[in-house]
Amino acid sequence: MKENTISFxxxxxxIEKNIEKYILSGSFWKxxxxxxxxxxxxxxxxxxxxxxxxxxxxxxxxxxxxVSHTELVKQGYNWYYWYxxxxxxxxxxxxxxxxxxxxxxxxxxRLAVPMLARITGLNTFGLFGVQWLLGxxxxxALISLIYSLTRSRLNAFYFALGxxxxxxxxxxxxxxxxxxxxxxxxxxxxxxxxxxxxxxFLFTQIAFWTDERGLINSSYVFLWWLFIESYTFDFxxxxxxxxxxxxxxxxxxxxxxxxxxxxxxxLEIPLEEGSATGFVVMKEMFGxxxxxxxxxxxxFVILPILGFYLLYKKQNxxxxxxxxxxxxxxxxxxxxxxxTMRTMSYxxxxxxxxxxxxxxxxxxxxxxxxxxxLAIINIISPSFY
Length: 385
Known about the structure:
Layout: H1 8-22, H2 29-48, H3 53-64, H4 69-74, H5 82-90, H6 112-120, H7 124-150, H8 153-163, H9 167-174, H10 181-193, H11 197-210, H12 213-217, H13 219-226, H14 235-239, H15 242-265, H16 282-287, H17 302-313, H18 317-337, H19 340-345, H20 349-361, H21 364-380
């Protein structure tokens, strides 16, 4: 008598068919994938994190209502920085004497959020609402980008789910402190989502003035538009690429604007010994080098490693060299800031850049299973800041 067996492929295929049938179907499948991704992310945060979700938001609520830092610390909450955005909104170009040991000293040129508060009158609750909207926009853009590259709704869903397991994708949910990293993650993602040069200029400008690490990691935006059709470099096409010129213009405008403000208003970021920014901390950071440095990427660390290997095997040394340079710059800045998870996450676009390469070298099934595996690992072992 023949024994009936159910293969692994049969089980997975059945699960994926149900996902496609009930979630990834219809005109609004991207929105359904978005909300399910965020829902799963929050669920696993509640289940796996030692700090209760409501406790994190309660501290933010008390801060936004005006409870002093001293009182919040007494109650066991973190230090919050939203108040400083409101302070900058009132006098954005005022020189402040802030010690290097305070995070606020790094915020003096991060004027986008304060100016938004100044122009719109948004309070801390309103700014945090904008952060959530930007976070949803980022995940939606990632779903759309991966679908456009692979033509697979499952791949798009798996990638977004994996991204939400790391700070690059979940920062908008968990950053109640006021770092606003997720604002930059969204804006530089939108800079590769749209083909409109004016929007690319606008998104990158806001990103740069939100955090200067957006400027440094906008090299990935440059690489995206440089290799938009393939991983080959064509100098003539690059010169005719309006998206690249929009980014270059944004770089120039930001640098001119920053140096002008620096000259006229003498704003400065202190780089004294012991500060958490600059080459002075790199020696200490190398002493910390261990497996924890990859907490910024979790299982997604496989994506750049595999991507670099494939480019090397294909002898595409130009693409390999340019992308590797951007990655090295991200890592150097990570060492300079003594903040691995946050700073590494600014280079999250490298994941998207390599998806096209994987699509060309893996079968549809292999890529789907690969992204599903990474998503599962990231979700069950998520990185929180």
